Structure formats: structure tokens, C-alpha cells
Amino acid sequence: MIEPGRAATLTRTVTAADLASAYAQAEGERYPDVLSTPALLALIERACADAMRDAVGAAQLSVGVTTHLNHLAPTPLGADVSATATFRGIEGALYWFDVVAADAGGPVGTASHARAIVERAAIEARAAKRRAL
Q1: What is the pTM (predicted TM-score) of this model?
Q2: How far apart are CA 102 and CA 23, in angstroms?
Q3: Is the pLDDT of residue 132 over 90?
Q4: Domain boundaries defined on the chain
Q5: What are the φ and ψ backbone dihedral angles of 66, each rounded to 5 degrees?
Q6: Which positions does UniProt annotate for substrate binding (predicted)?
Q7: Is 115 annotated as a binding residue?
Q8: Tens digits of per-residue pLDDT, 9-50?
Q9: How would you classify the pairing of strands 60-71 and 7-13?
């Protein structure tokens, strides 16, 4: 069990693979050379997962269920960006977190994120069934 207020911070340096421009695939599709929202979300999820690590058993995983994300400012290539996830509490089976992401220039994002604890074998079996469809 984890207590409300528990926090975890993860920091990473923005790489070319993290840029919004890396997602352009179709002709004429263009995005800026700044931290993409998907990369920001991944950092947020990892910070939340880290904060609840002690609540997850050896045969279990935590998985993201829902996120409300505000991407507030651009972070350039090569900059460090951090996400601090603070555990808010449990509602039903969901572990809720408030997250603030920032770079040297200040806040770049805020999020409310919920995770659930699942049995690894069960979720992988469900995915295998979907693959067979």
C-alpha cells in the first residue's frame, strides 16, 4: 500500500526520437522539432509507475488506464525534462496521480493519471486473444 503524497520524479533528455516531428509519416504532415505529447505522456506514465512500484507484486504490472494531459509549453531537443508524480489516492481499483512536468524554463505539462494493478499473465493472455482475431 502506498500513502497519499508519495512522489517520484523522472528526468530525461529530449532526443530526436522524442520530437513531434518524428511522428510525421504522410506527405505534407509537419510537426515542430519539440518534445512530442506522446513522449511527454510516456514520461508521465513512467513517473507514476515508479511512485507505485512498492504496491505491485512480482507477477503483477501497473498499467495506465486514463490520463487528462495539458501540454503547456515546448521543450527543445537536448533539453532535460522532468515529471513529478504525486499519489493522490485510490478510487476503486484505480491509483490516481497528479503530475507536473517541467524543463529549465518552467512547467511544460500537467496531468491527472490513473493506473491499475493487473496480473501480467492475464493481460498478456488477453492481448494474445486479440491478436488471433
Answers
A1: 0.95
A2: 22
A3: no
A4: 7-131
A5: -155, 150
A6: 64, 115
A7: yes
A8: 999 999 999 999 999 999 999 999 999 999 999 999 999 999
A9: unpaired
| Residue 106 counted as an annotated binding residue | no
Contact of 111 with 73, CB cutoff 8 Å: no
Q: What angle do CA 109, 111, 117 make, to 5 degrees?
A: 140
Q: Which residues are catalytic?
A: 37, 45, 71
Q: What is the 3-state secondary structure (H, E, C) of the chain?
A: CCCCCCEEEEEEECCHHHEHHHHCCCCCCCCCCEECHHHHHHHHHHHHHHHCHHHCCCCEEEEEEEEEEEECCCCECCCEEEEEEEEEEEECCEEEEEEEEEECCEEEEEEEEEEEEEEHHHHHHHHHHHHCC
